[in-house]
Specification:
GppA/Ppx_hydrolase, Ppx/GppA phosphatase family protein, 4-stranded mixed β-sheet, 22 helices, Ppx_GppA_C, alpha/beta, Ppx_GppA_N
Length: about 525
């Protein structure tokens, strides 16, 4: 089993908040901003001020129920009533935004990642855009994984006991369950499963609601995926188990007091509490927990799923972050900035473990990735791509030969297939798709408009693939022998030629032949012939 498994399937309002999650354009210092988030069970708004230091002060937080997950997992679409309800809430939120004097340029609109499972999600997104004048962004599974990682990492930093041991972090979301395994504060394994609170609830839902038989069926539905998850992590020592999620975080304070930013709840306490809530009707649940109906629907399934995980792993207790999960997620979106070097290293390490699963040549992959990174940085004035594509290129370099696992013959096509079916930790689905295409085109075969997957890209995205593929081909050719003969390189442009100097290597005939056979794309994109030379 590979280390990184991929199964496709409160903070105080005035407390400074620091995060670095998703890349967005930087904002002026001390400016007020707003985030609107269409979640699984509610539609939320936060308004706040982001300061020069990266801290954030919350000024307003509104939350109104919206049955998105119920619609999606019950009918496969978003109902007309829910669409109209969402449009009405957004209209009210924009009035609030205007009261603060915020221009629309300072407002972002995000949608839950489960929205993509609705057959009419594009119509819904268009309706939101027409209603608000805002571009409706869809958070995909990769984005959500990255956000969950950041929440888990912050919790580890607050608590030395969790940071210094083997800590298992699970997030039970509306449609998926994510598992992250940390060793001494660093991510060591990751997996994603098709089990979620609302997915499970609607799979066994009946007209009679939460009957005893319904709850039994729910437990049976959960058990299969829990057993699968436990099997995947059976060889990992686990000192602590952290449970992240909107529902379990919303009720944790009912059971115990928080210490060092977390609640520690024993399995017995969780079991007794879950049993008490399970016999309540919806009205009783809403009154007891002070939640709205749509949010209350997911609480018992969430507790049952977390309890099933705790039992299966033999946990004495679960650690639960203090705070509102959805608000923290929105704050992460609000304070977004380019990924840190540490996070990029986590992503590359995750890619390396995927390479291990497919028995790639690790030394060659690392060497090509190093050359690719250097080419990207030193030729930035030529390609003019955003910094995030450096990470995409590095991951593609690490994984460009995974198709050899199936067959050396046309392995570039096999690499495309494998990577399109593999979630890569830390990358969005669109970036993961680009990694797959770069692996497809790392050899001398150029992209064609009729090629599957490539043909679905926009003109701008196609040009990005061309630019990155040209760099990857040169990096790969520099280690044509897989022997890492060329240790370092220096770039020296002269006229229409780009000289790549190879200190310590006199005979580069093999590598030059490889470059000559693959550099046509580089020549077309960047206008340079490439020659290897001694310093």
């Amino acid at each position: 089993m590979s280390t990184f498994l991929n199964k496709r399937p409160t903070q105080s309002p005035n407390q400074p908040f620091v995060s670095s999650v998703m890349s967005e354009p930087s904002a002026p210092p001390s400016a007020e901003h707003a985030i609107i988030y269409v979640g699984a069970a509610s539609l939320s708004l936060i308004i706040g001020t982001r300061n020069e230091s990266g801290t954030f002060s919350l000024l307003e937080h509104l939350d109104k129920p919206l049955p998105m997950a119920r619609d999606i997992f019950r009918t496969g679409t978003i109902t007309r009533a829910t669409v109209e309800q969402a449009a009405g809430i957004l209209k009210d939120y924009l009035l609030t935004v205007r009261e603060y004097g915020l221009p629309l340029a300072n407002v972002r609109l995000y949608n839950t990642n489960i929205l993509s499972e609705a057959a009419n999600h594009e119509i819904f997104l268009n309706r939101l855009q027409v209603s608000t004048g805002l571009i409706a962004r869809l958070i995909d599974d990769g984005d959500m994984t990255r956000l969950v990682y950041q929440i888990g990492l912050r919790m580890l930093k607050k608590n030395p006991e969790l940071r210094e041991g083997h800590t298992f972090v699970t997030h039970i979301g509306p449609g998926n369950t994510r598992a992250l395994y940390f060793k001494n504060g660093r991510l060591a394994a990751y997996s994603n499963y098709r089990l979620g609170i609302y997915r499970a609830r609607e799979a066994v839902a009946g007209a009679d609601g939460e009957s005893a038989q319904h709850l039994t069926h729910l437990e049976e539905h959960i058990r299969g995926v829990v057993d699968h998850l436990a099997q995947d992590y059976s060889g990992y020592p686990i000192d602590n188990h952290v449970a992240i999620g909107a529902e379990i975080q919303s009720v944790a304070a009912e059971l115990t007091a928080a210490k060092q930013g977390a609640f520690r709840i024993t399995e017995d306490e969780l079991e007794r509490f879950t049993e008490k809530l399970a016999v309540l009707n919806p009205d009783e649940l809403v009154r007891k927990l002070h939640v709205h109906y749509t949010g209350g629907e997911g609480i018992v399934p969430a507790l049952q799923t977390n309890l099933a995980l705790a039992r299966r792993f033999g946990d004495e207790a679960l650690w639960i972050p203090e705070g509102d999960f959805q608000r923290e997620l929105m704050l992460d979106l609000m304070t977004a900035s380019p990924h840190s070097a540490n996070f990029q290293d986590e992503v590359v390490q995750a890619a390396c473990e995927i390479g291990v699963r497919y028995k790639t040549d690790r030394k060659h992959a690392d060497h090509v990735a190093g050359f690719a990174q250097q080419l990207f940085r030193e030729l930035q004035h030529l390609h003019a791509l955003e910094p995030k594509y450096e990470l995409v290129l590095r991951v593609a370099a690490v994984l460009h030969e995974v198709g050899m696992f199936i067959s050396p013959r046309e392995h570039h096509k096999h690499s495309l297939y494998i990577l399109l079916q593999t979630e890569i930790f830390g990358l969005s689905s669109s970036d993961g798709e680009m990694v797959a295409l770069l692996a497809r085109y790392h050899r001398r075969y150029n992209p064609e408009p009729n090629h599957p997957t490539f043909s679905d890209l926009s003109r701008e995205e196609r040009m990005i693939v061309f630019k990155l593929a040209a760099l990857l081909r040169i990096a790969d050719a520099l280690d044509r022998t897989h022997a890492q003969r060329i240790k370092t390189i220096q770039l020296r442009p002269e006229g229409s030629r780009l000289y790549i100097l190879t200190p310590g290597v006199d005979d580069t005939t093999v590598e030059q032949i490889a470059i000559n056979s693959k550099c046509d794309l580089f020549r077309e994109i960047y206008g340079y012939d490439i020659l290897l030379s001694k310093p």
